Amino acid sequence: MTKPIKRIGVLTSGGDCAGLNAVIRAVAYRAIRTYGWEVFGIVDGTMGLMNRPLQYRMLDLHFFNGNHLREGGTMLGTTNKGDPFNFPMPDGSKRDRSPDFVEGVKLLGLDALVVIGGDGSMRIVSKLCATGNIGMVGVPKTIDNDVHCTDTSVGFSTAANVVTEALDRLQPTAASHHRVMILEVMGRDAGHIALNAGIAGGADVILVPEVPYTLEGVADKIKEVLHGEGRSHALVVVAEGCKTAEGSTPSVSYSGGQTRYGGIGHYLTEQIAALTGAETRVTILGHVQRGGIPSMHDRLLASAFGVHAVDLVAQRRFGRMVAWRDRSVIDVPLDNVTIGARALDPHGALVHTARGLGIYCGEFGEDLESPAECCGPAVVTRDADAAGPETI
């Protein structure tokens, strides 16, 4: 006889973003109000289950004070450091701590886990769960919107709104001083933020990792705007993961030996100024894009995802990730998701829109291929009680 589900855990892993608390809230509400389960929030991602004593919070209906839906970040904390299968120890050695994770789940008496993360986080946690035969359901979150098999992820809408607002604020000062303003945004492997917000914010140049560009092409576009169209200013949006025209990847080293993407905005500032003669400035948004009050879209998406994730647990349909496709909540196999970042389609509708508006988006040759579809048919689970919203 199958053991009934009575207690589940929920954790956030990887980088933070707006909307995480809305997912946690939805998971708790659905699990408690509909199924009568106990819900434990795991503190600091996988670390909460690997540390001793265990780090967790009991999430009952009294825990939620009405503000969590509106708060950015994650009330549970998160981590994006340390591979549990090759974990760095204080003495400099590495150790497989996956048994600590599995033991932690058993010590808490959890019957399943809802994991809120990006493709990397879900790949690691799904592997951890597999080692202990632990049921897991994933919820996609990332400001980069680079998770496979879902049209959008929790956090992307708010981040794109922040970038759009930044362009709205940069445009008046660019016009006042007759400058070229460059905005460097997040987008390590994919240019979804840069493209979406660049179109919405009226950028003249949008540079993304998926499409090569030339400095001459960028300079020609800016000259066309400043001289051919008679406008006194121009806006450039560039994703942090873009390479230089020479093919190198700018990076910044931090204390502790960590290296992060950074510097493409400064590089472009010098090059554009030299090629066009225009006064050029750069703004780097950085982690501002992760924070703030979640947008309406992210709150709705998070709520729909949280409800559907709990329903999957109730149905014991583990090894799945909830997703949004064609205005419906669906679920897909985790194996189809954890294959790396979902790149921007160079021939997609939004790139076509940008080029139709006269925005310079790089050089388009025959060798630019659209990303392969990996997800297969969607699985939609609907009934009168579990139906997701019709539109987001």
TrEMBL record:
Co-factor(s): Mg(2+)
Entry GO CC: 6-phosphofructokinase complex
Annotated site residues (Important for substrate specificity) in this chain: G120
Keyword Cytoplasm on entry: yes
Transmembrane segments: none
InterPro entries for this protein: ATP_PFK, ATP_PFK_prok-type, Phosphofructokinase_CS, Phosphofructokinase_dom, Phosphofructokinase_III, PKF_sf
PROSITE patterns, sorted: PHOSPHOFRUCTOKINASE
Cellular localisation: Cytoplasm
Segments forming domain Phosphofructokinase: 7-313
Catalytic reaction equation(s): beta-D-fructose 6-phosphate + ATP = beta-D-fructose 1,6-bisphosphate + ADP + H(+)
Family: Belongs to the phosphofructokinase type A (PFKA) family. Mixed-substrate PFK group III subfamily.
Annotated protein name in UniProt: ATP-dependent 6-phosphofructokinase
